[in-house]
Amino acid sequence: MNTTHINTATATPRTFTIDSTLSGVSFLAAARSEFAKLKALRTSWWLSIITVALGVFIAGAVAFSFQQFAADDSAMAGDALQIAIQGQAGSYFAMILLGSLGVIAITTEYSTGAIRSSLTAVPQRFLLLSAKGLALVIWTAAVTAVMVLLSHGLTSIIAEPLSLGDIFDAEIAGMYAASWVSVVLTSLLGFGLGLLLRSSAGGIVILAVIMFVLQMVLSILYGVTGNAAWVEVLMQAEYMNLVDNAVNPNAGEFSMVPALEAWQAYVGLLIWVAVPMTLGALRFSHRDA
C-alpha cells in the first residue's frame, strides 16, 4: 500500500506580499475609505466628543473666572484678545486627545490585521498613507473647528469685552486659526508616532512625553545648569513652546526663554511632525505589514 506523507510541521509558511505595481483604487476612493474607517471607529467618536465637551467646559470656566475678576477689580478684566486666548485653553487637551486619535488611526490596523486588507486594496503604500493622513486631517480639522467656534461663543456670552462679532477681528481670528492648525499638526504627529512604533500604547506615551514631560525636564535642567545657552535653545525648540509662540502673540512675556517669531514656531512644528512621519513612512515602505 502506497501512502504520501506530508510533513506539515516543517512546511514553509506563506508570506504576505503586495505587488506595489498594481494600480489599486484611486486616491480619492482610498481617502473616502479611510474616512469611513475613522467614522466606524468608536474611539474616534468618543475622543472627539470629549475634545469638544472639555474645550467648551474650560472656555466657560475661564470666561466665568474673568467675569468674576472684572466684577471685583476692573484692572483684572483684560482685553478681548487676552480673554479669547484664555478661552482656547481647551485646545491643549484637544492636542493630546486628537493626537492619540492620530496614533490609533494607524495602529488599530496593525493590531487587528486590517492593514493587509488595506494594502490589498491600495498596493501603493505612499498613496495609502496619504489617504489615511488626509482622512485624519479632515476629521480632526472639523472637530477642532467645532470646539473653537463653540468655545468662542460661550466665552463671548459670559465674559466682556469679548463679543460674538470679535471672531472676525484679525488678531483674534488669527489666534483661532493658529490654535486650529496646532491641533491638526499634533494629530499628524501622533499619526507619525503610531506609524513608526506600530504600538498604540507606545505612540500615546511618547506623544505625552513630547507634550508635557519634556517641557518640565528642560525647565529643571535650565535651572540646574544656570540658564545654559544650549538648554535655552532646546527649550525654544521644545514642542509646546513652539505651540505657545505660534498661538499666543504675548507668549514671550511669561516665558523663561526669548520668544520666537510665528513663522519660526511653525517651521519648528513642521519639523517635529515631519521627522516621525518620514521615519514611519520609510519603515512602512521597507517592511511588510
Summarize the structure.
The protein is mostly helical and 289 residues long. It is built from 11 helices and no strands. Helix 10 (239-247) packs across helix 11.
Task: Tell me the Rg in angstroms.
Answer: 23 Å
Mean pLDDT: 88
Describe the sheet with the most strands.
none
Instruction: Report the strand count.
Output: 0
Strand content: under 5%
Number of domains: 1
Structural class: mainly alpha
Low-confidence stretches at least 5 residues in length (pLDDT < 50)? Answer: 1-13
Determine the number of helices (DSSP H or I, runs of at least 4 residues): 11
Principal-axes geometry comes out as globular
Distance between the termini: 45 Å
Query: How much helix, percentage-wise, in residues?
Result: over 70%
Helix and strand pattern: HHHHHHHHHHH
If you had to describe this structure to a student in words, what would you say it looks like?
The protein is mainly alpha-helical. It has one domain (24-286). The chain is 74% helix and 0% strand. It is built from eleven helices and no strands. The protein has helices at 27-40, 42-72, 80-87, 90-112, 114-121, 125-158, 170-197, 200-224, 229-237, 239-247, 262-286. The chain crosses the membrane at residues 45-69, 89-112, 133-154, 174-197, 204-225, 263-282. Keywords: Membrane, Transmembrane, Transmembrane helix. It holds the Pfam family ABC2_membrane_2.
